[in-house]
Amino acid sequence: MKQSIKEILASKPIGREVTICGWVRTFRNNQFIAVSDGSCIQTMQVVVDHEILDSTVLKRITTGAAIMATGTLLESQGKGQAVEVKVRTIEVVGDADPDKYPLQPKRHGMEFLREIAHLRIRTNTFGAVMRVRHTLAYAVHKFFNDRGFFYFHSPVITGSDAEGAGEMFRVTTLPLENVPKTPEGEVDVKQDFFGKTTNLTVSGQLEAELAALALSRVYTFGPTFRAENSNTSRHLAEFWMIEPEVAFFDLKDNMDLAEEMLQYVIRYTLEQCEEDILFLQDRQIQEEKSKPEAERSQMDLTTKLKFVIDNKFERLTYGEAIEILKNSTPNKKKKFQYLVEGWGADLQSEHERYLVEKHFKKPVILTNYPKEIKSFYMRLDDDGKTVSAMDILFPAIGEIIGGSQREERFDVLTQRMEEMDIPLDEMQWYLDTRRFGTCQHAGFGLGFERLVLFVTGMTNIRDVIPFPRTPGNAEF
Ligand code: 4AD
Ligand code: MG
Q1: Fewest C-beta atoms under 10 Å: which of 60, 102, 200, 226?
Q2: 204 lines ligand 1 (CB under 6 A)
Q3: All domains of the chain in start order, with CATH
Q4: Model-level pTM?
């Protein structure tokens, strides 16, 4: 394998011959080529001698072109780089017509880059985001593997539409222009591929619960689909979710695991991706200069990440949060779009952000929500009013994790399902865990892109996934 720029910069074999394969970022003074191969944020300076190089070759060295350059690695005379390559041979492997190549060496707007998502990976910003994304994913696997968890693959196509986590995408091979009908006039799903209604999964949790009651500690990490029509900077129709599930775990164990995991993966990524994060930090500082003073973040990116890994998250109940919100200045001055009247209100992101950013000024874990606003599988508390739910709220993001201790008692669970109109007959496989060897267990779901959003300091979730799927957009 040829050495990457990252490897060459790490070992710096001065005086030796190296080959650089990558894409031209800039070409200055017909002499200095900045080449990127995506292995790290740095480019390699490749110095060409235009006396000896054919002018037809020189003309083809344009931004975006793929080149292979071989020469001697030398200590650089110029500022801005420690080493450079004095070229012996150079080959333009793939031209990029400068009149047509859409990426130029200047700052492009995020909206424009989304339209060319197939090329935006070649920019500094998206390179950094993708490397951070990879490192976070690796850290998640490492965290769980080191603690004896098994990576469990829950299905992407699901036959249950009762999870209640959101609107689902139907999966079908029935001809849309001529859907077979039953004598009663309904869609004849028996003729469909699976002989029943199927959808893309909104969560791997229910299957993870089955696995936890066999393997004790499991997690899923896979694509998740929600057909909600929410066009926000924090929602995707296709996103990745990490869902650990642990037998003999209660709500407190669950909170401890979630907090430890978030701090671990952020710390790991901060160590491994220091240069990318510093680049993203500068980018954020530049970006924020155009914002009014009050909207700028109080901390730079690294300070914010260190703050989260060095401080315990604030833990309080939903009821306590409601009291704080009810008596808060924005509520009294009617500044919230949704005023908090009292117990029972569903928290909006403006409320979550107030608690995290203004009141506690650190990540918050809210627990014991009213049962009416949470899912059927969450364990009913002794008061009969709340469930053992937990949401973790992060600055600038709002909800990053949602989880709970699960209802392990067969009778209570089936009663809750009836109350919430969950069809019991379709869920017999799930109820079997409560029939046979049921036990206390708990788990949570971490939205992976929301984590990447937090760690990169990007502002829109569409910019932390390679090819975002949102209402009206499934390009590439
Ligand atoms: O709170 P949610 O809906 O919880 C569940 O799906 C549970 N089954 C998790 C569990 O207990 N195993 O989703 C979990 C997290 C949210 O906190 C959020 O970070 C993320 O998934 N999420 C989204 N991320 C991007 N786009 C969306 N449309 C999202 N919906 C949820
Ligand atoms: Mg949630």
Answers
A1: 102
A2: no
A3: 5-106 (2.40.50.140), 124-156+212-313+362-463 (3.30.930.10)
A4: 0.96
Sort residue 344 into left (φ over 0), alpha (ψ -120 to 50) or beta: left
- As a whole number of angstroms, the distance between CA 315 and CA 391 comes to 10
CA 423, CA 421: separation in Å to the nearest integer? 6
Which ligand has the nearest atom to the CA of 403? 1
Q: Each residue of 248-287: pLDDT tens digit?
A: 999 999 999 999 999 999 999 999 999 999 999 999 999 8
The DSSP-derived string for 281-335 is HHHHHHHHTTS-GGGS-SS-HHHHHHHHHHSPPEEEEHHHHHHHHHTSHHHHTT-
Cα–Cα distances in angstroms (integers) from residue 442 to residues 169, 245, 379, in the given order: 27, 6, 9
Distance CA 416, CA 420 (A): 6
Q: Is the CB of 402 under 6 A from ligand 1?
A: yes
Calculate how far, in angstroms, residue 131's C-alpha sits from the geometric centre of ligand 1: 23
Q: Looking at the CA of residue 228, tell me the nearest atom of ligand 1.
A: 28
pLDDT-derived band at 292 (thresholds 50, 70, 90) equals confident
Nearest CA to ligand 1 atom 30: 235
Per 3-state DSSP, the chain is made up of helix, strand and coil in percentages (nearest 5) of: 35, 25, 40
Token match 């003729």: residue?
191
Q: Token pair 């901060």 is at which residue?
A: 270
Distance from the alpha carbon of residue 385 to the mean position of ligand 2, in angstroms? 19
Per residue in 137-186, pLDDT tens?
A: 999 999 999 999 999 999 999 987 666 667 899 999 999 999 999 999 99
